[in-house]
Amino acid sequence: MIDLRYPYLLLLLLPAFWVTWRAPYRWGIPHERPTGRFARIMAHAVPALLSALLVLAASGPEWRETVWGRAPVVDFAVVLDGSSSMKAMDDGREDRWSAARRLLKSFIAGRPDDRFALVLFSGHPVTLSPLTADHVRLYTMLDRLDLSSRDDGTAIGSALMTAVRRLSDSPARSRVVLLLTDGAQNRGRVSALEAAEEAKAQGIRIHTVAMGGTGESLYPIEGGGFAKLKVDTDPATLKLVAQATGGEALAASDPQGLARSLLAVDQLEATALPVDPPSEGKPLAQWFLMAAILFALPLAFDLARKRGKARPAWLENP
Questions:
Q1: Distance (Å, rounded) from C-alpha 71 to C-alpha 122?
Q2: Which domains does the chain have, with CATH numbers?
Q3: Contacts of 201 (CB under 8 A, 6+ apart)
């Protein structure tokens, strides 16, 4: 169907049509009044049609086409641990930080119709991106992220509360927080369970992924080489957080386990609900402008032909 972007401009249609019809452009032989019926009609119709086409073009006509499929129904807030312990390597090849960013990109790519917000936390949470459907921007942001120990720590509760706020105004039917962390909370004034209660009150689910194993992991040290490090974890609290909001608590002891965890979250949130199909508009203004140009050509040629000639007497005394 045809829709108008600026329908109020159609109010100009009748005045423009009336003015141009009452003051017709006198085209034809300049020293003779048009005598044929067709010539008299066209003397009125061509300027009127020209004005009507210009008004229609200015009103922004669009051809609306239905985009079949599923409309976006899930808004995610990804909460990513950026503490120094994420440098640890659980498989001897890839650290937790690199694995988390790589697999998050794949997770986002697998949900092209959903929106994502990105919250990074260590000692304090930082919103890197509000809810957006611009996945390329998210990929670029994840690629450029780097760990910094200037504000080290693990403020899980504050980060979850920030994510809940990012989703609080979302109109999506399903709102989800995805928490990826390898540690236990040791910073922040808000506990993880307090944030979970707020999420529950707003109907937001929290899925938690506990990264890293319970034993020692390789940790890079300055000057080269690795040392063995055991990171304090709190899987029991993460499980309580997920259960309180209707989410799932998952464990990932290595990059392969993280991949399986994100796949499980993807399947849990795969309930694409049918909604009114969206539509997209294709502009039609150029076609109205092309038609106006065609109608203006004979007027332009006639003006050029009459240029410099005396005004006919019958126009002085019609």
A1: 34
A2: 2-65+279-316 (no CATH), 74-268 (3.40.50.410)
A3: none
Minimal CA–CA distance to 242: which of 313, 183, 193? 193
pLDDT tens-digit series, residues 16-52? 888 877 765 554 444 445 556 776 677 777 778 888 8
Average pLDDT over residues 200-218: 88
- Beta strands 217-220; 226-229: pairing state: antiparallel
Are 198 and 161 a contacting pair, CB within 8 Å? yes
Classified as helix, coil or strand, 254 is coil
- What is the spatial distance between Cα 181 and Cα 238, in angstroms, rounded to a whole number? 9
Q: How far apart are CA 141 and CA 132, in angstroms?
A: 12
Residue 239 is given by DSSP the state: H
Quote the pTM value. 0.63
